[in-house]
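User: Reviewer 2 asked us to show a designed sequence for the structure in our supplementary figure. I'm pasting the structure tokens here. Could you produce the per-position amino acids so we can include them in the response letter?
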């Protein structure tokens, strides 16, 4: 019995030197906490490992993070409900602003009157396609092409964008692959990375000129209300 207790004491001291807490030693050895305290109290309090500090920090901040996450979601839902169903005119104006901020534009040094829209946000693509439908752009005038890093799951991205655009994968133009640079630490990785979708409207010179005019009309309209 004495020998067993001596072995237990030695094991408790070994565990304490390894950085284990009193509760952890009690759980492993099946002895009382008072015994553990008596056996190891002369040993210095072990420094917490990085993993233990991280766990303590996470436990301290977890309730705050949950509360903040709930608050963010409530704010977003409240804001979404403020929009409600959109009228055709509202979608028309949103689409003009969307294209002028994200779409390709003709430059003095590079004239190109063609409606081309590129984005990685599925929501923006949906709104843009709804806008094209509102304008009466025929589906056979719209071409789609994926742009993505070559190290990504290209096939999965192609299927994702084809489904979003309601077309068959075979209808997509040849995917543009971006060369992978191992020196670059990319953030856009993982299961939610689908690259970008390029939406080209064929025979769109007249449409592009109208977009320029519509945007100019919005700017003038705002200036006259100031």
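Assistant: Here is a per-position design you can include in the supplement:
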């Amino acid at each position: 019995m004495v020998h067993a207790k001596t072995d237990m004491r030695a094991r408790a001291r070994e565990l304490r030197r390894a950085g284990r807490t009193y509760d952890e030693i009690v759980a492993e050895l099946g002895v009382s906490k008072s015994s553990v305290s008596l056996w190891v109290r002369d040993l210095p309090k072990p420094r917490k490992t990085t993993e233990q500090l991280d766990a303590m920090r996470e436990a301290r901040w977890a309730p705050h993070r949950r509360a903040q996450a709930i608050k963010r979601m409530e704010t977003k839902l409240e804001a979404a409900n403020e929009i409600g169903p959109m009228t055709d005119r509202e979608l028309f104006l949103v689409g003009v602003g969307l294209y002028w901020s994200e779409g390709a534009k003709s430059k003095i040094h590079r004239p190109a009157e063609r409606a081309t829209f590129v984005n990685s946000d599925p929501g923006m693509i949906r709104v843009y396609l709804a806008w094209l439908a509102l304008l009466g752009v025929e589906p056979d005038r719209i071409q789609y092409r994926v742009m993505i890093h070559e190290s990504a799951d290209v096939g999965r991205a192609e299927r994702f964008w084809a489904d979003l655009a309601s077309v068959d994968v075979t209808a997509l133009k040849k995917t543009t692959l971006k060369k992978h640079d191992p020196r670059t630490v990319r953030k856009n990785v993982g299961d939610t990375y689908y690259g970008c979708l390029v939406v080209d409207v064929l025979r769109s010179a007249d449409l592009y000129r109208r977009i320029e005019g519509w945007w100019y009309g919005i700017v003038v309209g705002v200036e006259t209300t100031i």
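For the response letter, you might also mention the following. Strands lie at 116-119, 142-149, 176-178, 196-201. The first strand starts at residue 116 and ends at 119.
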